[in-house]
Amino acid sequence: MNGTQHGRDRRQGVLSLHWYWLQALVIAGSALAAALLWKDIPSTLTTHYDLSFEPDGFGRKSWANVFLLNIVQLCLLATIMGTNAVIAQVKAASSADKESGEAKQRKFRYANSVFLYGLSLLLTLFFSYIQATMLYGWPPQALRAVTIGVMALVAGGIVGLVATVRRLGLQGQGTGDEEHWLAGGGVYYNPGDPAVFVPKKHGIGWTVNFGRPMGWLIIATLVAIPFAVVALFALMT
User: Fold this and answer.
1) β-pairing, 181-182 with 55-60?
2) What is the pTM of this model?
3) Do residues 23 and 77 make contact, with C-beta atoms less than 8 angstroms apart?
4) What is the largest distance, in Å, between two alpha-carbon atoms of the chain?
5) Radius of gyration over alpha carbons of the chain, in Å?
6) How far apart are CA 154 and CA 110, in angstroms?
């Protein structure tokens, strides 16, 4: 790992992107296993489970059905890595004590960065488990316990993040630019502000500066990703 890069990322309040190599290896390993075991994968695959985690949807073995979850994993990884990089550049919230405010913001960014990494790693492993259940005959009954466990861990992570934010006193600070907050403080529009992401005026986290073209591009990309995955799936089947 590049020590200089790691130190710079930590000073900016985010995890180094090098940490995401672990998730890339998980995705690559899952895809490679499916490719190497292709002949052993059954010709009919379970593609959906009902609320009781019993198979209720089936499809023929195809590149789309076998590798779709790997594509979803890659999209998730790219999205989280991009978000992590943006967090390092987010505009600081307004604070009477600038030095203290910047220190709190670094801690806030780091807490968010760690949460996003944990969430991404957890979902990556979860998708690999679902893929293995579909392809290799792993018992679907165990999927219920795994799913509940994942949901509990995500909920616990959110509670921990909210507790950290409240402890640091960072909820709902905004940017101090009152005239640029529209729709009751729900939308930030300031073409003169170079920041793409700013702290929310109300609640926890950040929102997009809709006065910047990049802000609109990010929103459009996030909306387009699910449609792109569905379209790719349709083309591959």
Assistant:
1) unpaired
2) 0.75
3) yes
4) 65
5) 21
6) 17
